[in-house]
What we know:
Strand content of chain A: 15-25%
Helix content of chain B: over 70%
Number of domains of chain B: 1
Helix content of chain A: 40-55%
Structural class of chain B: mainly alpha
Order of helices and strands of chain A: HEHEHEHEHEHEHEHEHEHEHHHEEEEEHH
Shape of chain B: globular
Strand content of chain B: under 5%
Oligomer: heterotrimer
Number of domains of chain A: 2
CATH superfamily of the largest domain in chain A: Response regulator
Distance between the termini of chain B: 6 Å
Radius of gyration of chain B: 19 Å
Largest interface: A-B, 56 and 66 residues
Number of helices of chain B: 13
Strand order of the largest sheet of chain B: 1-2
CATH architecture of the largest domain in chain A: 3-Layer(aba) Sandwich
Amino acid sequence: MRTATSTLGLLAMAIGVAALFLIGLPAPVASQAEKYRVGVVTLLAGPFAASIGVPAKNGAEMVAEAINNGTLPAPYATKGVAGRSLELVVVDESTGTAKQVTEFRGLAERREVDAVVGYLVAGSCLAVAPVADELKMLTLLSTCSTPRIFEENDFKYVYRTSAHLTPDGVTAARYLLKRMPNVKTIAGLNWNMAYGQDAWRDFRLSVQTLKPDVEAINEQFTTFGGGQYGAEISALLTKKPTVLHTAFAGGDFEAFVVQMTARGLHQNIQMVMTAGAGSMYRLLDKLPDGVFIEDRGPYSVFARPTALGNWFRTTYEQRYGITPPYTAYHMGQAVLAFKIAADKASKGGAKPAPEEIGRALEQLKFDAFGTTVHMSRSRGHQAVTESAIGVYKFDKAKSVPTVVDVTYYPADCVNPPDGTKGEAWIKGGFKGARCD
Amino acid sequence: MAARDRTGAALAGAFVVFVAAGFFLPSWAVSLVILSLARGIVALGLVVQFRSGLVSFGQALFFAIGGYAVGLAGLKLRLTDMIVLTVIGVAAATLLGAGLGFLMRRYREIFFAMLSLGFSMLFYGLLVKTETLGSTDGFNVPAPTIFGARLSALATRTLLYDLTVAAAAGAALGVHWYLGTILGRLDTALRDNEVRVEYLGYAPGRVIHVQYVLGAALAGGAGALTAMAVGHIDPSMAYWTTSGELVFVTILSGTGSVLAPFLGSLVFGLLQTYALQYAPSVWQMILGVALLAIILYLPGGLWSALERNRARA
Amino acid sequence: MIVATLAFIVADGVIYASWLFIVAVGMTLVYGVMRILNVAHGSLYALGAYTAATMVGAWFQRGYAPLGSFVLLLVAALVVGLVMGLILELGLLRFLHGRDEVVVVLATYATFLILEDVIQLIWGVEARPAPQPYSLLGTTTVGPLLLNNYDLALIALALLVGGVGWWALTRTIAGKLLLAVIFDREMAEACGINVRRVFLVTFLIGSVLGALGGASTAPMISVSRGLGVDVIVLAFAVVVIGGLGSIPGALLGAAVIGLSRAAAVHLLPQAEVFAIYLIMTLVLIIRPYGLLGHERLRKV
């Protein structure tokens, strides 16, 4: 049977496809000059939607609404962005890199946004950045951890309003060695993906640069979403390192904690958990006291009690019932940065062009929700903030998770100076770091 | 006598229409069409295999090989010409397909599917372990050039679009010709009764091997085109869910014509885009319902719906 | 040190293998009898986990006897398995009997996609931890090994399931009918066996087992979205390695994977990710029908 095609079939196909495309062409939109449409891209499906993806969306929506109503605390109490109301267009990031590029173009052309904010997954950020420059679309990346975005490329229209992954490892190393100066052996249990590999490498190199006789006696990389850590825990029970580093987060982190506490792994090993703070509200007393814990930056439990910080946390808790995780802060920061820069760039008249808003973002230093953000790296495109780390303690009296012995490290202490790549900086002895 | 075969004319017409449309469509639509046509090229290979009752759950292997060949050629060999890169993608995938084909030709049905899945996941694991290639982050592919010239982004994208349309048309034409040869006509015979095919004197293994290599070549070329269109490659190109998507498109399209996979792929692409836009938290369910509906009510795929009006000889 | 490592490898391997077996045995049973490779098995697992987590959470909130939570896990599995099994078999699979095997797989894949979002619609996006039962039983120390008794209980559960299954299949009449259907469906039908009823019962048992996999795992993890996806691939590998349709095969497959993974983790951590796919591919190359699968006769 040889395949053949009928003319009718072909005609039907052509008409059908054409019709579907026509539906997608942007409808004639009433003048956009009076509004700002901003695309918000985050994970709405998949294993991280619950713990970090949806909260990022919530953070954006909450801040946008406050901007429109003028209810942000001072000095941001002016209504709107450059006097215009802000409308969000939410897109799911969980569809894979190729689709994300198409979606980005769709946001720019089909849904006519003025800027794009968000992105949690490193792969999406890397893929979307060149397209942003091509379409001249102002893009504020909010999370995506990887330092490689600006370390390996220059982008004109892409900015990142939160710090990347390197400060987490450097902070953990400094804190560890300050509290346990005689550490001899460390081990790592991380995901088998770039994020896990990078996090472990940053931590290991930092520790070994600060104290060269420390030996990494065990490093494990597990499948993302693996969930079963019996064998890994046994391996650690036999190898007996002094310290265990893990950048696990979300479901895998919680599974690991449940499984390892049942076997007492934490009793003889100092745990350093650089991304686990978000889970403390679910684990409560299951997370053992005494572990070193970070939250990917000075957020949530580490956020300073400024007026803005308190507003963000209280409003989020009231609206969504949980303490906001770090991605909510990242996203809120990005939306806030957009407002500040646009306000600054607008001369009280026409909508400022993306280039003008971008210029206003460069080197911008602003108070965000519980911390200060300084856009000082990579020619003003990459932000740095201070970092925070503490020791977990579950307050049994009040049944509330807390952190004690919190230390904040200044931004210039744990972030590589402008123009230096993270790994080289660590290996070179943190030249140029200012830790006073 | 069968009705006059208009495939050639249809392809020529489609080619002209698409190339012309490329100048009017907005860039998101151009991007969508490139990706859909590339996916359609892979599905074309799968359709040929499906006619023999074989489904490969690991076609993503060759798709990823094509993509990574482009990435590595750009990174290490500084090759960026889009035609050269496509050829490299096809060549790399064909080589691997020819080799693996000796093994794969001995399997049928679900075992064929599972072994192909195994190979693609092994490659995925290899890519994830390779930190120099960025592990799960992947890396960006340098902008493609044509005949040594680096053009504006718009011109480059339009040329890439035209190349993809040409590749799709060429692939469809090639497969259509193949299906008219003896080896090609044996595919449905294999599905009906393999033992009889043997007794007639033909080697089923050889047919399956050729089909496998054909599928690999097509997937490799598509992977190369996709890598250039997206500008970024990562190991998810080899993951089983990518293969799953390709098989989805194959079922959606049906095996009725070489044009079917392209129609199916375009419909799938549009379905996904609009599901994401209007129902961002339940788009998976929408796709699942669509697939189920096709399986239950339109087992021949979308193409069979178009063919209902044709008088059968 | 070496003895400790070896002991751990065996212990970890057996624990992981038990978990794998419980998760995968339902899938292989369904395939053996009905020739359906049920991708939605992952959804049954997820539904079992979510239901168990919700029930256990509510149980502990009301302060009932902690040991009762174990019974709850089984109840959750039973309820989910029976309800979903009936819905899937009577509502969908019944219409697909006789269709090409691979097409049926795709139909179950579509069902899986649908159920993923259904789960989200019912339970929302929040994660549900229900860790209380996990540490209830305490730990055991055997020489250098420190093991959690819940894990050991899983071994017992796996043996129970395997043992009951084997006894039921080979020593009861119903079981022998099932074996007959597995071996040759047409012949069995010709001999007067009500194959349709056998299918339904089998699918229900398989679904309950799938849900049991999820329910018994819930206390050791954080039940959140995406549970089903990872498990499908693992169950698939176990089933393939052991031989489709063979329950002792599933046991063997689980044991092979469990032990190699444990060995990799202790001795060669870099190989851990490859282990499962490498074994699956090697087994398929060397023994295409799985370690204990039987060859398919070609029908002319």
